Amino acid sequence: MKKLLLSLCAVLMAATSVNALDRAHTLKVYNWADYIDMQNVLDKFPEWYKEQTGEEVQVIYQTFDINESMLTQIEVGHEDYDVVCPSEYIIERMLRQDLLLPINKDFGTTQDFTHLVAPFAQEKFQQMAPEGSDIQVSDYTVGYMWGTTGWLYNPEWVDAADLKSWSAILNPKFAGRIFMKDAYRDVYSVLVLYAYKDEIARGEVTRDELVAHVTPERIRRVEKILLEAKPNIAGWEVDFGKEEMTKGHTWMNLSWSGDAQWAIDEAAEIGVTLEYIVPEEGSNVWFDGWVIPKYAKNVKAASYFINYLCMPENAILNMEEIGYVSVIASPEILAWANDAEIDEVADLSYFFGENATRIHANQVFYPDKSVIERCALMHDCADKTEDMLSMWNRVKGDNLNTTMVVIIIAILAAVIAFAVITVFTKRRQRQMQSRRRKK
């Protein structure tokens, strides 16, 4: 028995040693689902990495569904992911909690493609730095995809003129016809701009300041709007709203631009027309970026992987596969974005530079400069997170629109009717059995 235990210990020690050795040649990637071109980009990274470094690497790829679950894995579980792709407010939180390692941008003879990130994106990322710190955010994260938040709508039932303001959420025309994101930061970040539109117009507050600093009074104003809007809200969703839109099952959906474009394309295939608009009060501009968590084991491979994703050809492959927009602003990306078949032109100088003032571009992907100037970066709620969650629970807690109430009442009536019929039937059966016995 003792020899058997010693043998098992030896096997376990050997396996541990092999795993430890292999970990130096393994890259653990943690990303959103459906957020990379698996075949043409991810699967080809090991070959590219060996060409650049002469070293082998195996990729272990895992996905998450929400930012908070990813963060818990790292913050609480100390998981040793080498590279992950959080959203802006989580990057901000990870910086504040010292959960990130610097990206090593010394790639030897390999070109540094991270410098191709649009200055516009770099400026927004710097806004994620903790207040009072001198952190250069670009040392810890490199942008990946970006976009806006707006209304995805069906023009067969909704006039674009009614969607020029976020007040559309209160319009009685849309009773029971709106799907809202079940994402309190996203909803708050756009509605706070509507709630303070007059103060913005008078120059008393900026959009950036409104979104960056959450206060009890600002939460109260947004809650008031949401409570008034409840009869219009058909449901709260994270992912299925875009599919409901493609099927023509609802009229409007608060949507991220990438999801909106996906829905527009899918709907077109079955003859349904969908469009996207950012209201005039403004919106949030969101970003996802790559970071190296504190407990990473392979910083070198992680840094090379981030650089690899910034290569223009890979950025284009990823955009075409997932339907979102890369932060890379190279000439190749500009040529890809400039589509002569699109009649409308947009001023994209904020992204591509002074030579891009009149570009025939898809403005769901690349909004005009006038739209971007009305957008603010979404931030972490920090010490106001509990207040925001309490507000969200109050708003959603009894959200039953008229249609849902009718359905629920009908179901309850059917259940009660079935129960009454069942009881009556059993009683008749017992009576008949009793009569037979008497006979």
Structure description:
With 439 residues, the chain is α/β, with parallel strands linked by helices. The protein folds into three domains: 174 residues, D-Maltodextrin-Binding Protein, domain 2 (3-Layer(aba) Sandwich); 187 residues, D-Maltodextrin-Binding Protein, domain 2; 26 residues. The chain has 18 helices and twelve strands. Strands 4, 5, 6, 7, 8, 9, 10, 11 and 12 form a nine-stranded mixed sheet that branches. A three-stranded parallel sheet has the order 2-1-3. α2 links the parallel β1 and β2. α6 crosses α9 and α9 runs parallel beside α17. It starts with a helix and ends with a helix. The N terminus and C terminus are likely disordered.
Main features:
439 residues, alpha/beta, D-Maltodextrin-Binding Protein, domain 2, 3 domains, nine-stranded mixed β-sheet, three-stranded parallel β-sheet, 18 helices, 12 strands, 46% helix, 15% strand, globular, disordered N terminus, disordered C terminus
**Percent of residues in helices:** 40-55%
Helix/strand order, N-terminal first: HEHEHEHEHEEHHHHEHEHEEHHEHHHEHH
The CATH class of the largest domain turns out to be Alpha Beta
User: Radius of gyration over alpha carbons?
Assistant: 27 Å
Q: CATH topology of the largest domain, what is it called?
A: D-Maltodextrin-Binding Protein, domain 2
Provide the residue-averaged pLDDT.
89
Number of strands: 12
Low-confidence stretches: 1-21, 399-410, 430-439
- What is the correct CATH architecture of the largest domain? 3-Layer(aba) Sandwich
The coarse overall form would be: globular
Give the strand content: 5-15%
According to CATH, the homologous superfamily of the largest domain is: Periplasmic binding protein-like II
Alpha-beta content class: alpha/beta
What's the assembly state of these chains? Answer: single chain
- C-alpha termini separation: 78 Å
